[in-house]
């Protein structure tokens, strides 16, 4: 277990060599395979937030757009980014916060489409501050003097929670953040090692079933809204070089993901089925979790919202331009 200062950022320095070599290779050249489909490789973190990609695969949406997509499971954006920048994969999924951090540090990346989005009801959001009922934490500012779990300092939910805490007048030095995987956070809540945890589904639901309480939405808490309803907080992105050299293919990928989001939004049963078959989720858990919204269209506002929160929290060094982080064909 690793304890981090509240102002620690995401480091992408290890990606600098990959970024330098990104200009040398454009990755896939967009040539069709023998069956007439264009091969594309995607690095995907398999979660509720990326299920539209599996919808596009299972429902033939990629094929309808002339694409033969190979999906590679990756642990997180940091693991996928070097391959993305070197052209070994063409696209990858990531939460908006690490993308903002990477772009702030000079990585030549652009977001292409969304794969999950916020919802209207703050209590129906999967990204929540979950507290032990005996913790004494009833509002965001009460995190002071307590031990709070997060899966990564600088993740989207962590950045949003920290920005809200600072807006409420909280002392950034008064919170002890503990970095651990979300499944371990659920157990640490139960044992009392953590007073609260910033969780996402399915771990939010697991913690609530243990009797803990969700008190604060990371993105949509009334009075602290970081994002508007239906704004994507997980995106599909690519390198600037690949997008410049394969604009027509990238356009088809974007259109396919937008269509898949629409299908996911209209068919929650299909989403649950894919969470079981592709993410390996227990069927009973999949039936009970709070599903995200699904919106594939990016405007730049969603990146701006997270960029502003991260700048307020001291996680990036300069104001962020959300519109400049979106690919436009």
Automatic annotation (TrEMBL):
<comment type="similarity">
    <text>Belongs to the bacterial solute-binding protein SsuA/TauA family.</text>
</comment>
<protein>
    <submittedName>
        <fullName>ABC transporter substrate-binding protein</fullName>
    </submittedName>
</protein>
<dbReference type="GO" id="GO:0042597">
    <property type="term" value="C:periplasmic space"/>
</dbReference>
<dbReference type="InterPro" id="IPR015168">
    <property type="entry name" value="SsuA/THI5"/>
</dbReference>
<keyword id="KW-0732">Signal</keyword>
<feature type="signal peptide">
    <location>
        <begin position="1"/>
        <end position="22"/>
    </location>
</feature>
<feature type="domain" description="SsuA/THI5-like">
    <location>
        <begin position="49"/>
        <end position="269"/>
    </location>
</feature>
<dbReference type="Pfam" id="PF09084">
    <property type="entry name" value="NMT1"/>
</dbReference>
């Amino acid at each position: 277990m690793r304890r981090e200062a509240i102002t620690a950022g995401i480091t992408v320095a290890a990606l600098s060599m990959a970024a330098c070599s990104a200009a040398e290779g454009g990755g896939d050249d967009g040539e069709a395979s023998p069956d007439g489909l264009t091969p594309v490789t995607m690095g995907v973190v398999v979660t509720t937030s990326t299920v539209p990609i599996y919808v596009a695969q299972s429902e033939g949406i990629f094929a309808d757009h002339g694409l033969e997509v190979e999906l590679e499971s990756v642990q997180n954006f940091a693991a996928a980014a070097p391959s993305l920048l070197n052209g070994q994969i063409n696209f990858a999924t990531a939460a908006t916060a690490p993308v903002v951090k990477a772009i702030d540090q000079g990585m030549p990346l652009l977001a292409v489409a969304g794969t999950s989005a916020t919802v209207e009801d703050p209590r129906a959001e999967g990204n929540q501050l979950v507290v032990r009922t005996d913790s004494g934490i009833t509002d965001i500012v009460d995190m002071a003097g307590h031990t709070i779990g997060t899966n990564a300092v600088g993740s989207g939910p962590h950045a949003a929670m920290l920005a809200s805490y600072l807006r409420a007048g909280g002392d950034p030095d008064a919170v002890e953040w503990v970095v651990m995987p979300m499944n371990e956070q659920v157990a640490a809540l139960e044992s009392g090692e953590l007073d609260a945890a910033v969780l996402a589904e399915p771990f939010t639901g697991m913690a609530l079933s243990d009797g803990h309480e969700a008190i604060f939405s990371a993105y949509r808490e009334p009075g602290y809204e970081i994002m508007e309803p239906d704004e994507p907080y997980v995106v599909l992105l690519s390198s600037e070089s690949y997008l410049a050299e394969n604009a027509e293919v990238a356009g088809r990928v974007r259109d396919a993901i937008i269509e898949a989001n629409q299908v996911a939004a209209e068919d929650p049963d299909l989403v649950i089925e894919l969470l079981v078959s592709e993410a390996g989720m227990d069927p009973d858990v999949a039936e009970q979790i709070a599903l995200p919204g699904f919106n594939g269209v990016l405007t730049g506002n969603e990146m701006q919202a997270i960029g502003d929160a991260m700048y307020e929290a001291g996680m990036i060094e300069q104001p962020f331009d959300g519109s400049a982080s979106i690919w436009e064909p």
